[in-house]
Design goal:
Helices cover 54% and strands 0% of the residues. The protein is mostly helical. Helix 5 packs across helix 11. The longest helix has 23 residues.
Amino acid sequence: MVTRPVCLRSSQANRVFIKSTQSRTLSTSSAVDQEVESGEMDRRWAQTPQRMRAPVRARPKPQSNNFRVNEDPKQLEQIMGRVLGSGGEKMLTEEVRWLVVTHKSFDHGRRGFNDRLAFLGKRIVDLESSLAIVNSPMSTRQSIIRPSEDPYGRKPFKHVALDGLANLTEYTRYQTLDIKRLAQLAERYGLTSVIRWKPKKADNMKGSGIDVVLNSALYAIVGATALQKGGKVASKIVRERILTPLGVV
């Protein structure tokens, strides 16, 4: 039987003890756990995360551009009910409701913003509007125009499902989802009172780009609905709450 020296066995035991102690120390002192314990990650929409704040402000705070945003959850729920219809105030979770109305200009984007949700929502609205335009009856001008006779006697293929393709042009799509039209619809729903953003000039909302911000919020609501309730519900919201008021459906 081979025996090891006592000093060798004690040194190996010390190394094992040190490794286990270090692993426990690192696992219990992570930054994520500390933020969760302090409650910062639970309500990120309500306050700027502590670790994303600069210790000293780099430049003085401007005095002539004071703009306050909505902080009342009940008012936001009321507006969501107006946008999404009956039961819409509870269709999205609290965090997502605040996210869809937050522009990246608000608080330097440190509380999250709605760009990705708006990207998804715009794709859904584009699809539903194109389907609505294709299914709409042919305009009077297009029905009067007759194709010229082919010298070889060929006839173009015709089908009921293809009759509306002539309506789907770049101009009609642009006019249907015009930024100003969607911004006016968002204003009627009351989104102006709950969107969170930082205008360039508080006394000039149009010049600061409020129409684009309202469009992003409206698209983001559709994208969030698709992720949380499914594409079928989102398509129904688009047809009933956006395209019907615009006169497309």
